[in-house]
Design a protein that fits this description.
heterodimer; A: 333 residues; alpha+beta; 3-stranded antiparallel beta sheet; disordered N terminus; B: 287 residues; 7 helices; 55% helix; rod-shaped
């Protein structure tokens, strides 16, 4: 202001009383302006020095470049120019993707060698959290990039010790946990202040070039199971039937045995009873039995021919009709 | 009045200049050395505010954090004469700012030197290991050896190597196709194995089943015939005992039963009057 006035003075060339007047005015103004400028400066200082820390975050305060404290959630004040504050989220789960970005596959990251010198395609999600903001900020340059690169190191090192079949099937859990622990060890060595919360294998599969062959193995294994199951079905169908049949045969034989015995007993009882009566009157009983039987038989026979004993002797020498034999030859129709 | 003000302002400006040139802040992420006309004065590794002689002393700032150097991937020949494409990544930090400043001066040069050393150590170590070991179990010891050798060589640069890791250890692209062919062949073999194993198992189960079935039925036959035999034997004994009491009467009775069974409505019978049945047919008083 003063210098501007001086320049104006030089241009207008005013007299000395004029100069006195103006400088007097300036002095008066300055007395009023001073506190205002100071106030404004103070306000700006307060406004620029105030910062807020949200829940789950931590503020790390540096005073003249040196870390002098941490602040929790809330409104805080830092001295402008002298203090610097970095607010770090210590609860947020951050993630990096290996082998893919969103839906895009990244073959240069995902293809890796297995212990049995096969090539496998793996996609992994690594989740991590900042647990030590000071280390995170001041001990390692570019921690995010380090997580990605180191996760690749760990994953490839673990897969390199695993066979392709294990990596794709039963060994998945182990690959995950080993990768996680190795990654954590390395991140600790690098003083990253990062905790690896999870390593998730999204996909472990054969590369495109050989995938069909791998799928065929899966099919073959299913076919094997199917064949075995069918054969087991055959077994389970046949054996119970056979057991049933066997039981039937044995039971029938048991029945036969009992039947034979019982029938024999019956027949014998019948015979003995008849025999007892027969002994009392042998001749009569014998004749009666004979005649009754003959009567029953001949009553049922349609074609009966009675031949006189003389005819028997002359015309039909073939037929021998002895006293105990009746008929003999069956004639048929 | 005005002159006094001018002098005061000038003095203030001068003081600010001195202060600005003599006080400096070392950040948590930095370490510095102070030089005086190009001559080393001191090293400050701790963060905070510091002072130096204004204008004649200069501050050279360097990283205190751990840095990384991702060397380009390269082809290496292994002990068993296979090509391996490896991509080492080195973590390092500036351990001695003075040496570092004097020898390599800046990060780009430091990286270049470091990478050259790491690559040549890699070449040496890889050449003394087999491919399979490098991919698998020898990887970690190999990397530790590389890191140790590299570390002793870069000490003169004021650099401390924290570790060297192989990010990727792959086959050259030209070889990949043959690996895929081998993998395909191996899978085909496994698939065949599964299929024939399925047939084998199924055939075994079927054969066992058939055998078991035959045995079950044969055992049943054996038992049944034994039972039948017993039945026949018992009945034979019973009959023999009873009928033995009067064999002739048994024969007579049994014959009558047989006649009754043998003759039926369709039988043609020619009877003679000689038959005892007709004894009285023409002679009622026959004796």
């Amino acid at each position: 202001m003063r210098s501007q006035f001086g320049r104006n003075g030089g241009w207008k060339r005013p007299d000395s009383s004029n100069i006195e007047q103006v400088s007097e005015a300036v002095r008066r103004n300055k007395r009023k302006l001073g506190p205002i400028i100071l106030g404004v400066l103070l306000l700006i200082a307060i406004l620029t020095g105030v910062y807020s820390v949200n829940p789950g975050e931590q503020g790390v305060v540096r005073t003249f470049g040196k870390e002098t404290g941490k602040t929790g959630p809330g409104l805080h004040f830092a001295l402008p120019i002298v203090q610097k504050v970095d607010v770090v989220n210590v609860e947020q789960i951050r993630r990096v993707e290996i082998g893919f970005r969103g839906k895009e596959r990244v073959p240069s990251e995902s293809l890796m060698l297995t212990g049995d010198e096969n090539i496998v395609e793996a996609q992994v999600i690594v989740q991590y959290r900042v647990i030590d903001p000071s280390k995170y900020l001041f001990r390692l340059r570019d921690p995010e990039q380090t997580v990605l690169a180191t996760a690749e190191v760990a994953l490839r090192s673990v897969i390199g010790r695993t066979t392709i079949d294990d990596a794709m099937t039963t060994g998945r859990e182990e690959v995950q946990s080993e990768t996680r622990s190795q990654l954590q060890t390395l991140m600790d060595t690098y003083q990253s202040g990062i905790a690896i919360t999870e390593v998730k294998l999204q996909m472990v599969d054969a590369p495109d070039e050989v995938r069909e062959a791998f799928h065929d193995v899966v099919r073959a294994r299913e076919e094997k199971e199917q064949k075995i199951n069918k054969a087991k079905g055959y077994n389970e169908d046949l054996i119970p039937r056979a057991r049933g049949e066997a039981r039937q045969v044995v039971r029938a034989a048991e029945a036969y045995k009992q039947q034979r015995e019982l029938r024999a007993n019956g027949d014998v009882a019948n015979f003995l009873a008849v025999l007892e009566e027969y002994r009392k009157a042998e001749k009569v009983t014998r004749d009666r039995l004979y005649l009754e039987t003959m009567e029953r038989i001949l009553r049922t026979i349609d074609k009966k021919t009675l031949v006189d004993r003389d005819v028997t002797k002359n015309a039909l020498p073939v037929l021998n009709l002895g006293p105990a034999v009746v008929g003999g030859q069956a004639g048929g129709k | 009045m005005e002159r006094k003000f001018y002098v005061f302002a000038l003095l203030l400006l001068f003081a600010a200049g001195i202060a600005k040139s003599s006080a400096f802040v070392v950040d948590e992420t930095e370490q510095v050395i102070i030089t005086q006309f190009g001559q080393y004065k001191r090293t400050i590794s701790e963060p905070g505010i510091n002072f130096k002689l204004p204008y004649i002393q200069t501050v050279e700032r360097m990283e205190r954090r751990i840095l990384s150097s991702d060397a380009r991937s390269d082809k290496y020949l292994t002990l068993d004469k296979k090509w391996l494409v490896a991509d080492p990544i080195t973590r390092w930090r500036i351990a001695d700012p003075l040496k570092y400043f004097m020898t390599v001066h800046d990060e780009a040069r430091a990286r270049q030197n470091l990478d050259d050393i790491v690559l040549s150590e890699m070449r040496r170590e890889i050449a003394s290991h087999n491919f399979g070991d490098i991919v698998g179990n020898a990887r970690d010891p190999l990397m530790i050896a590389v890191a140790e050798r590299a570390s002793s060589q870069v000490k003169d640069f004021g650099i401390d190597v924290i570790d060297v890791r192989i990010k990727r250890a792959d086959l050259p692209t030209e070889v990949q196709e043959s690996v895929f062919a081998r993998m395909r062949a191996e899978r085909e073999r496994i698939a065949k194995k599964y299929r024939s194993e399925g047939d084998e198992e199924a055939a075994k189960i079927r054969a066992d089943t058939d055998k078991d079935k035959t045995i079950i039925l044969a055992k049943a036959y054996e038992e049944a015939e034994k039972l039948r035999g017993e039945g026949d034997a018992i009945s034979t004994k019973i009959y023999a005992e009873a009928y033995g009491k009067d064999p002739e009467f048994y024969t007579f009775l049994r014959s009558l039963t047989a006649y009754e069974q043998l003759l039926n409505a369709q039988t043609s019978v020619v009877l003679s009057t000689d038959s005892p049945l007709f004894k009285y047919l023409d002679n009622p008083s026959k004796k």
